[in-house]
Fold this sequence. Notes:
Chain A is α+β, with helices and mostly antiparallel strands. In chain B, β2 (62-68) and β3 form a beta hairpin.
Amino acid sequence: MRWYYKLPLRLRSLFCKNQVELDLSEELKFHLQSQIDEFVRQGMNSQEARRAALQALGGVEQVKEECREARKMNLIENSVRDLRLGLRMLRRNPGFTVLVILCLTLGIGANAAVFSWVEGILLRPYPLVAHQEQLVALSGTVGEEREQTSWPDLLDVKRSCALCKTVFVSSITGATLSIGERAEVVTGSMASANYFDGIEVHPILGRGFEPSEDTGSRGHPVVVISYHLWQTRFQGDPKIIGKTQRLDNVVYTIIGVTPEGFYGTFVGRVIEFWVPVSMLEVLNGGSFKLEDRGARWAEAFVRLKPSVTRNQAQQEISAIAARLAVEYPDTNRGRGIKVWPLWNTPFNHARELLPIFEIMVVVTMFVLLIVCANVGNLLLVRSFARRHEMTVRVAMGADRCRLLRQLLTEGLLLSACGAAGGMLVAYWCRHGLVLFFPGDMLYLPGQIDGRVLGLSAALCLVVTLAIGLVPAFQTRHLALADTLKTEASSVMGARGRAWFRSSLVVLQVTLSFILLVGATLLMQSLRKIRTTSPGFTTTRVFDTWIPFVAAGYDASRAKTFQDELIQRVRALLGVEAAAYARVVPLGYQMFSSTPIAVDGYEPQPNEQPTADYNEVSPGYFATLGIPLISGREFSRADDENAPRVAIVNQTMVARYWRGQNPIGQRLQVKGNWARVVAVVKDSKYYSMGETARPFFYVPLRQYFAIEPDIHIRTTQPLQTIQAALLREVRALDPNLPLFEMITLQEQVDRSTSQQLVAVALVALFGGLALLLASIGLYGVMSYTVSQSTRELGLRMALGAGTSNVLRLVLSRGLLLTTTGILLGIALALLLTRLLGNLLYQVSPRDPLAFAAAFAVMTLASLAACFLPAWRATRTDPMRALRAE
Amino acid sequence: MAKPTDLVQGTLDLLILKTLAHQPMHGWGIAQRIRQVSKEALQVNQGALYPALHRLEQQGWIRAKWGESENNRRAKYYSLTPDGAKYLRQEQAQWKRLSLAINLVLEAS
């Protein structure tokens, strides 16, 4: 049992260090004494004997160190000592330490926050949902375009896909929930009956859906509510199951409550209730869609069988889609089905956030690199100050390994503090992303889990290596004698050790230049987007809507009401025009979409022409200020009983009528032919950055929607018109509420928030990087100047004037900057393509942006170099020379 | 006179253990004894002796105890542990096999 001997020894070495050291000294003393006695016996005098004995042993301290090494405890012991020494060093220089830790906190924190967002929003977006790596999203495709899927198609995929464990649906919807006095619109989901089994989340109270509940029309008014809703609106009533609740105007039976912390499966929104898809028409209006293969509305997910890859699943599902296209050519010709990784889900906010995250990851990595370079430089400066200490330690028998370990320990201490600070930053920022999307009520949580912690720890280690090795690199050149003798002073522009520090500065300049270019490009793009006309008036047109469904209106009552209201609104003071439209442009709501046919247009064999359209009332184009090019607006005569009509945009004319006048021609919409009565100018429909697309309008009366938006063009301010509208609504029906009223400009701003986030982030980090790089440059230049006092003094003594010295120092600083900028230009030319879709009408290689970044960088570095240069001119030649 | 042969790396441990097999001894004594027994042929490098002793102690082959030396000084006496004795037997056998083998090779014409 050797541990019986070992353990006490180890404990002794660790805890009774002094005793062990004493024993060691005494043991060696005895040895030396014996050796001296021996030599004296051989006839040496005691002095000689002592020297000879020491020589024979080969240095007491060296032997001691080797003995310590032999006691394996050394590793721990040394680490403890390194740690203590490191702490002492850091305490001795509090300013330096705080600066370095702040830099690192910033660098690591920014990265950890982005990691936590990527994890919580893209990679594991759905808390409590099991095995998210097996989940993929499903969408239909028409050529390159994506669309929702139809229920019969999904049932076919579910039946025939051997690699899919299950296919389930969760389409976002909303409903007015009124309990007592308070009514609000809550976000919900229309789910297939297997939804809760599919995601493996089970209600904590009651049950999920029965298999039969997603069949039939309006047959199963049952609802599962979220824990949050249960707690806030039902006060956590333990007997909630079986009670009834109205959503809109339909009474549902509450059958279940989901677990706490489950927010549904829609990136960006918290889902509060789930109803079976059989309630689709009740919630979204329209006809019975569960047996209609042409009605594409479902947002579906697939859970793959374990170890099935997305590609394998895609192949099988594509084969199924191809079969469906042959079997049902009327509805499925030219259409496919595609699976998507969760982080690229086409029907929630994941896809629009993706490019922002790509940029953020790159940008924060850049910031971390810059921080490392900066901290490395700071440490380097300090390592010069510590050269003497290091040299003494080498002379005293410390081997280089120990020195290296000491430096790495200090680096680790710093980066560990930085990492801890960074995790705090990430924790504070985990819900911060939402702040960039004002007014959108988004839910974008970061998630700090094991993987995020692991990545941050890895980052911390890399940083440690980076910043610890920088000064270690210097000790490599430690020449004992030289350094002990004197601090040799260097010469302006001398090569040698300075190149390392200089290259760190060049790296910083390069990276911040790239960030500056990115920020300038994005700013230009944002300005372009904001100043581009969306094709309609934005400032004086207001938008709101009235929840008729929730108030129990049917279609005919709503029609009557809408007619009366619009008359009253048009009579209001300051109102120039007013109209209804089913969808407000640039909003989140989707326009209707339909396969179309056009007289005289022959589609390609595999082409199924489709176009989006809006249902609008008379006066719509006048209200929004969309110019009519020819023809007439819809009139009140274009109602249910009149022949169907449509108004098309320019792009549609160009594509389907080859520029010929389409007025009087026929266009097939949802299987019915309509006559074209006008052509209007193109405008923006889904986003400000989109390219022109074919689009048309139909009369709201002929394609009725019960809850259209009302648009009002007026000279009055928002509050006035809102109050006036509410008065008119109440005069007609005192029970009807009115939703938030915004200007169309607000709508435009909301739709460009993605660009705004990108600009804000890149500009923020770009500015930060610029600051860090300037500090780095300032540090290097100050150090160079302070090290070349003698040379400067000599030059001045020999007649160099202030301007000569100034030029000398500045030119050296600018050399570094220029090198950095040149590298930056080369890299930026490669990298700005990453901005891709975020850039609107701005080339990623826009010379203006590069020039602006160049100017800013040069100015900043001039500023950074000026102070050291000015200090150089203050050098007193006499004192500088005498100091030698 | 030829210089005393430097000890082959690793054989020092074996010699120390063997020396301690007779009786507990301090570092100085071990060095002296090895020299005497080898008729001055083996000179222990003093710088290497103590680290070796500490290593062997850490490994549990020997243990140390403070005692009085012949001339009444305090000295650290090392002695073989039972495990150390077993280890010594193994290593000795190993050494014999090795030297026999080397002899065979060297004496083969």
